[in-house]
Amino acid sequence: MSVPTLFTLAAHILGTLKYSPKMIKTFVPKEVNEQLVLFMKGCELCDYVKSFGGIYNIYKTFSIDGFQRFYLHFLQMCEKTNFLKTKNKMKLQKNDFIVTMIYDLRNDDTEIDLNFCFRSMGFPDIFCDFKEPRFQYYFFSCKFHTYHLPYDHFPVPAIPPNWTQFLPTNVDTSVLPFLIQPLRLKRDPPFQQFTLNDEFFVRLLAMVNAYTRDRHHETLAYGFELVAHQTIYQNNVLNKYYVYVYGMLAVTLSELHIEFDICSSFLVEAEHLAKICSQTLDIFYYKMRVAKNFYMFDLVHEMFFNIFDVVPMESNFYPYSLQIYFNALFVLVENNLCKALVYNHHFNEEHKKKCKSILLETSVILKRHRKFIYKCLSTDQKEEADFELYNLIIEMYMLCIDKLSTTVNYFINDQLTCLALQLDRVSRLYYFFKHLCSPFAFSVDMLMHKLETILVCQEKCCHIKFCEENGNLTFTYFLLFQIFTNKHDVALQLLEKAMECFKFNASPRYQMGWHFKQKNVNFIDDSHSFKTHPINIPRLLQTHGRIGKALKLGVISIEEYNKRHF
User: Fold this and answer.
1) How far apart are CA 228 and CA 39, in angstroms?
2) Are 291 and 329 contacting, i.e. CB atoms less than 8 angstroms apart?
3) Contacts within 8 Å (CB) and 24+ apart, 157-164
4) Running DSSP on this structure, what letter comes out for residue 426?
5) Which residues contact 373 (CB under 8 A, 6 or more apart)?
C-alpha cells in the first residue's frame, strides 16, 4: 500500500467536500485544481465530478491541457476501479458528458477546440458531424488508423527553388514499382484549395497518409514543403499542427537511417511546439519510434511506459504504442539470436560462453515481458487478441533459444509443433508454420512463391522497391529456417533478399547479415550522440546526399503515381 503524500491527502479532501464549482474557483487556484484532480481515486473522483455538475462543466473551467490530463485520468480510474457501483457511476458520468457535448456542439459553431482536444487524445471517432474542416477530421482519423481515406490522390509538393539546387540531378527511378504501368488518358481534377486552412490540411493529410503507409520518400517531400511554408507556420491557429510535421519528419529521417543527432533536432523542434498533454504523448510516441529505428531499446522502454501509464485502453495511443514497443522488442531479440548463431559457429570456448551469455540475457528479457503480458491479460483488456499474439511470438523466440542452447531436440520439436498449430493462421509467420506442419503439402517452393507475393504487395503499398519492412520479414524467415530446419541453403537465400533491402535503406541490420555470412564476431556497438543543432534544411540537403535523393524520389513518386492512377 502506498504511503499518502501531501498531494493525495489534499486531493482526497477536495474530492470528498461538497464544494460548488464557484467555491472551488474562488478558494482553489485553477493550476492547483488541475494538478490535485490527478491524485483522486474512483469514489472521490466521482464526487468531485458530481460537485461540478458533470464533466462538461469541468471542461468549461479547466485549460485544454488540464482537461486532457483529467479526462485520461478519469477513464483510467474507470477501467481500474474494482467497485462495480463506482464503475457504473463513472460510466454514467462519461455518457452524460458525451450527450451534453453532442447537444451543445450541434448548436454552437465556436467549439472547434473541443474537437481538437478529443481527437488529439486518440478519440477521433467520438464526434463526426460537427462544423469543422473535413480535412482536419480526416487527419486525426488517418493518424490513428481508424478511417480509410476515400482517395489517395494529393497535390505534387512544391519544393522551394533555393532548396532544389542541392538535389541530385539524376535518381534511379526504377525503384518505383508503378512506373511500368501505362499512363492514363483521363485524369481527375486536382484538389481545389480556396483558403490557407485547406491548403495546409490537404498537405498535412497527404503527409500523414504517406507516413502511415511507410512511404518515407513521400512523407519527406510533403514535410519539407510544409516546413518551407512560413506563412502557414506563423499562423496562430495552424501552428500547433507543426508538432506533428516535425515529429513525423524525425521518424521518417530515422527510418532512412540518417544520423541520430539530426533526428533529435527535429524532435526537439516538435517538443518546443507541444503545449498540451496529447501533444506530449505524441512526442513520446515519436521518440519511441526513432529509438526503435536506432535499436535503443532502453529509450523505447522508457517512452512506452510514459504513454502506457497515462492513457486508457479507449485511446488509440494504447494499441499503437504497444505495437511499436513489441516490434522493437522482437528486433532486439532477433539481432541477439543472429549474434548467438555467429558465436555458436566457432569452437572457441570463449565464443561458446559468449553465445550462452547472449541467449541467457535474451531469455531474461523475454520472460520479463511474458510476465508483463500475463499481468495485462489479467485485466479486462480491449487488446486481448494482440497480447495473445505477442505471447505466442515470445514463446517462439524462447524455443529458438532452447534450440540453440541444448542438443536434446525431442521435447523442443513437440513444443514447436504445438506452437505451429496456434501460429499457422495468424501473423506474418503464417507460411513458415504452414510449411512446418505440412512440409509435403506446402513445399519450400510454394512458401517462397507466397512470400514473394507478400513482398510485392508491400512494395506497392510503400511505393518503393526494397522497402525495409520486406527486409525485416525475410530476416525473420531466415532465422526460423536457420534455427529450426536443415534447409540452410534456403535460409541463406532469404538472408540475401533481406540484405538487399537493408543495403538499399542503409540499415544497420545489413552489418548483422554480413557478420553471419563472414562468421565474424567483431560486432560494433553503435553509440549515438544526443547533441542537437538548429535545423537548416538547405545545409542538410547539401551535406547528406541520401536526404536529397529521398526528397527528389518522393516528388517524382507522387507525380508519376498521380499520372498513372488519376
Assistant:
1) 43
2) no
3) 157/203, 157/206, 157/221, 157/222, 157/224, 157/225, 157/554, 157/555, 157/558, 158/225, 159/221, 159/224, 159/225, 159/228, 159/551, 159/555, 160/228, 162/538, 163/224, 163/228, 163/537, 163/538, 163/541
4) S
5) 387, 390, 391, 394
CB 118 within 8 A of CB 59: no
Q: Would you say 207 and 219 are in contact if contact means Cβ atoms under 8 Å apart? A: yes
Question: DSSP 3-state assignment of 145?
Answer: coil
422 vs 409: CA distance, rounded Å = 20
Q: Which three cell numbers stand for residue 77?
A: 480510474
| Phi, psi (deg, nearest 5) at residue 382 | -70, -35
Residue 518 CB partners (closer than 8 Å, separation 6+): none
SS3 call for 294: coil
Handedness of CA 318, 319, 322, 323 (dihedral sign): negative
d(CA 438, CA 445): 13
How do residues 143-196 score in pLDDT, each as one tens digit?
A: 888 766 766 778 899 998 889 888 988 888 889 988 777 776 555 555 666 677
Tens-digit pLDDT profile for residues 4-36: 565 565 555 555 555 555 556 555 667 777 888
- Which three cell numbers, joined as nine digits, stand for 46? 466521482
Neighbours of 561 (CB within 10 A): 21
Which residue, 283, 270, 265, is CA-closest to 243? 270
Compute the distance between CA of residue 537 and CA of residue 548 in angstroms, rounded to an integer: 10
More confident residue, 411 or 544: 544
One-letter amino acid at 384 equals E
Q: What is the dihedral of CA 306, 308, 311, 314, to 10 degrees?
A: 160
Distance CA(557)–CA(564), nearest Å, equals: 11
The reported pTM is 0.92
Q: Taking the CB of residue 457, how many other CB atoms lie within 10 A of it?
A: 11
N- to C-terminal Cα distance for the chain? 63
**Could you give the maximum distance between any two Cα atoms of the chain, in Å?**
78
Q: Is 11 helix (H, G, I), strand (E, B) or coil?
A: helix
Residue type, 185: L
Alpha helices in 133-241 (DSSP H): 134-143, 161-164, 196-212, 216-228, 230-233
Q: Angle formed by the axes of helices 216-228 and 196-212, to 10°? A: 160
**How many whole angstroms separate alpha carbon 565 and alpha carbon 550?**
22
Backbone dihedral region for residue 295 (phi beyond 0: left; psi -120 to 50: alpha; all else: beta) = left
Find, among 156, 485, 42, the residue nearest to 15 by Cα. Answer: 42
